[in-house]
Amino acid sequence: MSKRLFSHCCWCGDFSFLRGHTVKAVCESFHLAKDSGFKVVAHMMPDLPNVGLERDIEQFTEFFENPAFRPDGLKLYPTLVIRGTGLYELWKSGRYKSYSPSDLIELVARILALVPPWTRVYRVQRDIPMPLVSSGVEHGNLRELALARMKDLGIQCRDVRTREVGIQEIHHKVRPYQVELVRRDYVANGGWETFLSYEDPDQDILIGLLRLRKCSEETFRFELGGGVSIVRELHVYGTVVPVSSRDPTKFQHQGFGMLLMEEAERIARDEHGSGKIAVISGNWKRAKFMIYSQFELGTLLPLFMVIMFRIGLSWLMKDLCSNKKKIMKAVWPARAFRAV
């Protein structure tokens, strides 16, 4: 583990941020979450005291390249000085000074250039009323300014959000022309990750994605150990199309999700050596897997049955056990399994 990154996250000079955990704990949390099938979205805060621009860049470079981190998503929150905080006292006494607006835009632009194509940048700043901010971000459109700076420098942001087909249609009036399956493999948090996507490579437009993981050998979820691979996310972008509807001008419900699942099953069977594939999903998506893909219910169903029995809804349980669709409407998110 990098001591440099540890110092950035937990301690800067003589000022402790009292996060209550170490970077090692962060890495372990990422590992446990991914081995359970969850997406991991990290919150990162540049412009902390006693760090500096170059060390901030080094920190983010390691964050995206070190297999102990490599999150699926990022929320980028530059430091804000708020009255009543310890940082406010440092700033008031002159021991802390925020980056200038131009330096902050430059920093965010350089960070966005580092983001790998399998990571989504959800946010670039917090929505905090400016009257509450004593020092820090001075622009409400920091992401937009950073992207403009990247254009001036001739570099691109290739995160998931920037490349989404819906975003490209709305902001740039472009549509995919030649769509093909793209595969990216990488190691992260003790497991083998495969990022599958349908894209237009020439225009760098993303239509849909799937995150497949072969869990680490020491996964704590017994049902995911050995011969099981897990789909941590399946998403097709673009304008929302109602369930059971199709629009030839839109991209949802055109079969991209099914094609991604079929390729994930092939990889799980032929390359991972898995006998089953698991999918983490919500109720309605799980119903779709059950109806169209012959998936079985996952491990949370027995707990659900116990709870329903205890509250005296035996009549509902009898109905649920005889009707798969109603089961799917009633059970909270869990995993579905299918033999591959």
From TrEMBL:
<feature type="transmembrane region" description="Helical">
    <location>
        <begin position="297"/>
        <end position="317"/>
    </location>
</feature>
<keyword id="KW-0004">4Fe-4S</keyword>
<dbReference type="GO" id="GO:0002926">
    <property type="term" value="P:tRNA wobble base 5-methoxycarbonylmethyl-2-thiouridinylation"/>
</dbReference>
<keyword id="KW-1133">Transmembrane helix</keyword>
<dbReference type="GO" id="GO:0051539">
    <property type="term" value="F:4 iron, 4 sulfur cluster binding"/>
</dbReference>
<protein>
    <submittedName>
        <fullName>Elongator acetyltransferase complex subunit 3</fullName>
    </submittedName>
</protein>
<keyword id="KW-0949">S-adenosyl-L-methionine</keyword>
<keyword id="KW-0479">Metal-binding</keyword>
<dbReference type="GO" id="GO:0046872">
    <property type="term" value="F:metal ion binding"/>
</dbReference>
<dbReference type="Pfam" id="PF16199">
    <property type="entry name" value="Radical_SAM_C"/>
</dbReference>
<dbReference type="InterPro" id="IPR034687">
    <property type="entry name" value="ELP3-like"/>
</dbReference>
<keyword id="KW-0812">Transmembrane</keyword>
<keyword id="KW-0472">Membrane</keyword>
<keyword id="KW-0819">tRNA processing</keyword>
<keyword id="KW-0408">Iron</keyword>
<dbReference type="InterPro" id="IPR032432">
    <property type="entry name" value="Radical_SAM_C"/>
</dbReference>
<dbReference type="InterPro" id="IPR016181">
    <property type="entry name" value="Acyl_CoA_acyltransferase"/>
</dbReference>
<dbReference type="GO" id="GO:0016740">
    <property type="term" value="F:transferase activity"/>
</dbReference>
<dbReference type="GO" id="GO:0005737">
    <property type="term" value="C:cytoplasm"/>
</dbReference>
<keyword id="KW-0808">Transferase</keyword>
<dbReference type="GO" id="GO:0033588">
    <property type="term" value="C:elongator holoenzyme complex"/>
</dbReference>
<feature type="domain" description="Radical SAM C-terminal extension">
    <location>
        <begin position="71"/>
        <end position="151"/>
    </location>
</feature>
<dbReference type="GO" id="GO:0005634">
    <property type="term" value="C:nucleus"/>
</dbReference>
<dbReference type="InterPro" id="IPR039661">
    <property type="entry name" value="ELP3"/>
</dbReference>
<keyword id="KW-0411">Iron-sulfur</keyword>
<dbReference type="InterPro" id="IPR058240">
    <property type="entry name" value="rSAM_sf"/>
</dbReference>
